[in-house]
Amino acid sequence: MAIVDITVIPIGTETPSVSNYVADIQKLLLKLEEEGQISFKLTPMSTLIEGDLPILLDVVQKIHEVPFEKGIQRVATNIRIDDRRDKKRKMEDKLASVKAKM
User: What family classification does the UniProt entry report for this protein (predicted)?
Assistant: First the structure.
């Protein structure tokens, strides 16, 4: 199971706020989570998405497209992938491991 840390940045918005774009992306992710494809968490600076890597790469493309669908002409997307294959670990497991050592 992999985790993707993703930030989608629409460029050329009418105002400095991008919360409407973030909300549209979260709605798409919620639909995918309800279908059992992924799990995700919104953070103040990015979104963490967990699932099988091929599915996550497809999800990255889908959410990168969201601002374009809203009329934005330029989008910068930053992704970071954590793909550990020696153990099946979830986001919560990683946090629990750190907390246990504190």
Answer: Belongs to the UPF0045 family.
**CATH number of the domain located at residue range(s) 2-100 in this protein:** 3.30.70.930
Q: Residue 65: phi, psi to the nearest 5? A: -75, -20
Q: Domain spans of the chain?
A: 2-100
Residue 56 has, within 13 A of its CA and on its CB side, a CA count of 20
**Nearest-angstrom CA–CA distance, 42 and 98:** 20
Distance of CA 27 to the CA centre of its chain: 12
pLDDT digits (tens, 9 = 90+) for 56-65: 999 999 999 9
Residues 37/51, Cβ–Cβ less than 8 Å: yes
Give me the amino acid identity at 54.
P
Query: What are the beta bridge partners of residue 75?
Result: 10
